[in-house]
């Protein structure tokens, strides 16, 4: 079964960022080879509107079957609100919470992000997963792309 990786805007931007490009481009190479599928939400599409044109156009280099499209549902909105109410993060991080909620509800294999402050952060991950379990959802695996690329044996 091909792993389903939910991506947020930091992954798309990371493709072009000097600090994150090597690992991000390696992850996109796995996408091109059909080793993974990216789960992309309508929330990501809205975020891309505010991004530079070259970032917006990145997906045009990949076949449509590389992506699974999902939506921000009312269920995901409520779960995201629960993260905020539990003070896992502040209200300013609502979109981050919505990404996590969508990925949780969609039962992806992993959420990939470069957002170390609000998403790929051990204390925050514990908080999100505590709320997930309290509300009857499974825990969500959250990683940065360095953890999701294939390293050749030396």
Query: How many structurally independent domains?
Result: 1
CATH superfamily: 5'-nuclease
Give me the side-by-side strand order of the main sheet.
Answer: 3-2-1-4-5
Q: Secondary-structure element order, as H and E?
A: EHHEHHEHHEHE
Q: How far apart lie the N and C ends? A: 27 Å
Q: Helical content, roughly?
A: 40-55%
Describe this structure in a few short sentences.
44% of the residues lie in helices and 12% in strands.
Report on the architecture of this protein.
The chain has about 150 residues and is of the alpha/beta class. The chain has a single domain, classed as Rossmann fold. It is built from seven helices and five strands, in the order βααβααβααβαβ. It has a five-stranded parallel sheet. Helix 5 crosses helix 6. The longest helix has 13 residues. The protein is globular and about 40 Å long. The two termini are about 25 Å apart. The mean pLDDT is about 95.
Protein traits:
single chain; about 150 residues; alpha/beta; Rossmann fold; five-stranded parallel sheet; 7 helices; 5 strands; globular
Topology diagram in text:
Layout: E1 4-7, H1 9-14, H2 21-32, E2 37-41, H3 42-49, H4 53-56, E3 67-70, H5 74-85, H6 94-105, E4 110-112, H7 122-134, E5 142-143
């Amino acid at each position: 079964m091909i792993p389903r990786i939910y991506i947020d805007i930091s992954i798309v931007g990371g493709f072009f960022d000097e600090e994150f490009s090597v690992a991000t481009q390696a992850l996109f190479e796995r996408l091109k080879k059909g080793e993974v599928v990216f789960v992309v939400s309508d929330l990501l599409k809205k975020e891309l509107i505010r991004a530079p044109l070259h970032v917006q156009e990145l997906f045009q280099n990949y076949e449509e079957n590389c992506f699974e499209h999902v939506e921000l549902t009312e269920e995901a909105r409520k779960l995201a609100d629960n993260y905020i109410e539990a003070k896992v993060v502040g209200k300013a991080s609502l979109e981050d919470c919505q990404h996590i909620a969508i990925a949780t509800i969609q039962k992806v294999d992993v959420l990939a992000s470069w957002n170390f402050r609000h998403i790929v952060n051990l204390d925050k991950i514990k908080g999100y997963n505590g709320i997930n379990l309290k509300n009857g959802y499974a825990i969500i695996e959250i990683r940065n792309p360095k953890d999701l690329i294939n390293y050749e044996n030396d």
